[in-house]
């Protein structure tokens, strides 16, 4: 069988030459009804050689912000490289997209199934097809994600910071409002790519099944800046503000079940000891004031008002590098509004002298 020329790219049985734009579809499987499930893949090639960059969303089918970001980039014809190649995959997990679900029908997470297995679970087969067809072609990538299960994320880049100069440069070029150091998780796309010498950063914004217009706009601008950094575009919009780099983060979780009310917003700075919300019983008898055990920025927020013990409430990104008490103990650091020796007593609303009037005239903790 003749080998393709060095300047040709082979994908899904197609040979794509310099200067070509191609839409191809990777067939994954069929639904029980017999309907074919395939993954549309857009390829944009310049005449001049250069790096190959992957833009991919929909790893989790209910995370629509990344899908919309790539759709707009394609629709507005912003992915016309001056050099190199751009591979754009708006939706990897077609199954999840059709079912408003994070997972594939077998209940597994594609982003914990890499490098995959052609005879494994459905998630593993999706990952394997990606590894066989896409991964060998790329040098760099941006993987678009969204907070899930009623949890919203402020626009942020997640990557392995200060361990690889190329990754640091990609994150700096994207210039999201926040850049968070995030370790590699077993079975994830980032881990597998790093093992093969590819560099992939993750962009997070908003929550599942909700469009986050500001986050989408920031995602488009950041993507253009990365492509400009790699010499693939002539220009890109400048960031409005410098990125805030955070080397660690802490999830604050519910110590008590009840009705959660947040007093903070995404992107807000909080100090150690500052109240960030309350958890109250639904009968109007008791409420617990929640104080942050750390100083940092709110980069994730739970919008579900009804919470159980252990539920994640807020995600705080921190500028400090040394472990704190919150990292060394079980992460249930919410404190009652009044402290006893046990520091766990709930406070009666009627007896609490620190009650403040709410906007609607009702009392809150």
Q: What distance lies between the first and last C-alpha atoms, to the nearest angstrom?
A: 75 Å
Report the count of strand segments.
22
Mean pLDDT: 88
From the spread of the alpha carbons, the general shape counts as globular
User: What is the CATH class of the largest domain?
Assistant: Alpha Beta
CATH homology superfamily name of the largest domain: Zn peptidases
Structural class: alpha+beta
CATH architecture of the largest domain: 3-Layer(aba) Sandwich
CATH fold descriptor of the largest domain? Aminopeptidase
Number of domains: 2
Helix fraction bin: 10-25%
Give, in order, the helices and strands: EEEEEHEHHEEHEHEHEEEEEEEEEHEEE
Poorly predicted tracts of residues: 324-365
Number of discrete helical segments: 7
Let me know the largest β-sheet.
13 strands, mixed
Strand content: 25-35%
What gyration radius follows from the Cα positions, in whole Å?
A: 23 Å
